[in-house]
């Protein structure tokens, strides 16, 4: 596992963190647009094509807004899976081989058609497979 991003931000304030896999083919982007937190999968090799988006939280009901939130973006050893943890809790994971995106809410539906998995809910078992 490689941790590429380890920083803090304030939930509900516009911010973004991006990370590119060690192999350079894929990337991820975390953004808080002031309303919600989202995690995006990107195909860097195809000119920054958006592959999938996962909903992490609503800013008014997400992580504690009264204190800074720690964000970490990690890559699996082979660079084909990425996860995001907020305040030491895994919130989402992309498996670029199986073309799966997983988060606690399992939302949104796969609007881009990239994901091949139907079950999008993040479970401890899925996290253990990669991290």
UniProtKB/TrEMBL annotation:
Per the record, the domain of life is Bacteria
InterPro entries from the xrefs?
Answer: UCP007050_HI0931 (IPR014449)
Q: Name one Pfam family in it.
A: DUF2251
- Quote the protein name from its UniProt record: DUF2251 domain-containing protein
- Which species is this record about? Flaviaesturariibacter amylovorans
